[in-house]
Predict the structure of Glutathione S-transferase family protein.
Amino acid sequence: MKLLGRLTSLNVRKVMWTATLLGLDLDREDWGMGFRSPQQPEFLALNPNALVPVLIDGDFTLWESNSICRYLAAKTGATPLLPADPKARARVEQWMDWQAGELNNSWRVAFMALVRGQPATAEAIAASVASWNRHMALLDAQLAHTGACVCGADLTLADVVLGLSAQRWKNAPIERVALPAVEAWLQRLSSRPGFAEFVGNGMP
């Protein structure tokens, strides 16, 4: 299987960490900012959104990082990461969808302005930071409730995708609220294979 996308992309690292946890060896090619442009026709034919990552598995092509993570787990039958039980799986996917929608939208203005240098007003940045901290506090409450991983005792894809997001929050040049459950959870995750390379590597 081949993955198109640069390692400076959080969404690419999300897939690479999933693959590592599953024992999969993805052939990654650099595409995106600083590398080959996703606006090239050959890339647009694979993903008309012109975004990384894109997975190629034989004649099957897939985009959207969380969907790719789900596919890799399902393909390998890794039920701990993506449980077979409908209720347990729905809970994992609920938190994955929350990460991709609610949490990502909360930090977008602040991160793109403070880290990527895109223009934004001070008021808009402050509002984004406040929303980011508020959403992270929801994750902290969930982790305090489980005392382990996002959905309970076992590591799942919810921990993978939210682990990347939490590390971005931790590294961002913002004023953060104290979230002890998130900090303890990240420390536990740091012992997992691939964490140092794809999560705790200092990349934004």
Observations:
- The chain has two domains: 2-76, 86-198.
- Helices lie at 10-22, 41-44, 65-76, 86-114, 122-146, 157-171, 180-189, 195-198.
- DSSP finds eight helices and four strands in the chain.
- Strands lie at 2-4, 27-29, 54-57, 60-63.
